[in-house]
Write a structure and sequence with these properties.
single chain, alpha+beta, 7% strand, elongated, disordered N terminus
Length: 359
């Protein structure tokens, strides 16, 4: 698609010069623009998720204090509620920072282990290595680690915090099903995620969203049992006191509402970014291979697969080229299009690729 010269820069990245606008993407958008935009968006979304976790921790702290029986003669005191919010917020911030650091330095290896991926050598699959090597040279990125998932399902993904620490993985089932051109299309898609720094965001968002979901479940249970065994005793002690501070009531109500909607908001943001970046990676694959039919053929085979991937959960599902979960695969929901879809509809992806071919 794009025939531009490449210039090496000190950081090791490859800068494409004089590239024409990308087909299927907004006018005047080059891959340098795309990479820069994705880096900015990644930083913003990670900060946003950390803020959500911090506020969520504060909300859980308020709820726990409200029903723990820590009340004065006139009911729950404002200072007590604010103290709970500060402690909960601090613990939420600390947890998010630890999770971010873990994801940055160890997330890729953890994801490879979680998905059952095993790294292979060139002698194990010379054709696969040759395809990835050619695409890495064309894309100006280092050769990633190459892994295989011993599973009959059809899928692939990429992970790593940057191109220098990246890995691509493909299931043994998909590897057997693809022709060389289709294999190149799939690997080009995954390498495009690497070039666009999508995998950095994907790992961080998976980790942070997992923290929120886990905390929501734990916080909900804690609040429930605090209400049953603590709040009633506290309410009895303060029944003879004056009325509750209206500001305290407002803070508690806001905390409860935010604790309920925070996990939903976090997942919606994550899923929306995942869907958009799949389209961009498809366009990037065509830019690398200059042959849309390869990826079109691979996506058509993926669309017809009804074998879910084992050893994969909701936190890692958005990393894959198509939704690997049982609900999507066995029920043929690869064309689902709603706010809770981890991937865009396959039919739309194929349609966009055909538009690139005819454009």
């Amino acid at each position: 698609m794009a025939d531009g010269s490449k210039t090496a820069v000190p950081s090791g990245e490859v800068v494409h010069q004089d590239l024409p606008p990308l087909k299927g993407l907004p006018d005047n958008l080059t891959y340098n623009d795309l990479i820069a935009r994705n880096k900015r968006n990644s930083s913003f979304l990670v900060v946003l998720m950390i803020v959500i976790i911090t506020l969520f921790g504060g909300s859980v702290g308020v709820i726990a204090v409200a029903w723990s029986g820590s009340q004065g003669e006139n009911g729950i005191q404002l200072g007590t509620v604010l103290g709970g919010a500060l402690v909960g917020g601090f613990l939420g911030l600390l947890a998010s920072l630890i999770a971010t650091a873990w994801s940055w330095f160890s997330g890729a290896d953890a994801i490879l282990r979680m998905t059952g991926s095993r790294e292979i050598k060139k002698s194990d699959d010379p054709q696969l290595f040759n395809v990835v090597e050619e695409l890495a040279i064309a894309g100006g990125v280092p050769l990633p680690r190459i892994c295989v998932i011993d599973d009959p399902s059809l899928n692939a993904f990429a992970t790593g915090r940057d191109p220098e620490h990246a890995a691509v993985a493909i299931t043994s089932g998909l590897r057997k099903q693809l022709s060389r051109d289709e294999l190149a299309g799939v690997m080009a898609h995954e390498l495009s995620h690497i070039r666009h720094y999508d995998i950095r965001l994907g790992m961080l968002m998976a980790t942070l969203a997992g923290i929120i979901v886990f905390a929501a479940d734990a916080g909900g249970r804690a609040a429930y049992y605090s209400f049953l065994f603590g709040g009633r005793r506290g309410g009895g002690r303060s029944s003879g006191g004056g009325g509750a501070n209206p500001l305290v009531i407002v803070i508690i109500v806001v905390a409860v509402i935010f604790a309920i909607i925070a996990p939903l908001c976090a997942m919606l943001v994550r899923f929306a970014m995942s869907r958009q970046r799949e389209y961009l990676a498809d366009a990037g694959a065509v830019e690398l291979t200059r042959y849309p039919d390869g990826l079109i053929g691979a996506l058509s085979k993926l669309e017809n697969c009804r074998q879910p991937l084992r050893h994969v959960g909701k936190s890692t599902a958005p990393l894959f080229i198509v939704n690997p979960l049982k609900a999507a695969v066995r029920k043929g929901r690869h064309d689902a299009s709603n706010a809770f879809s981890t991937h865009p509809p396959l039919s739309e992806r194929i349609q966009r690729l055909r538009a690139l071919k005819s454009g």
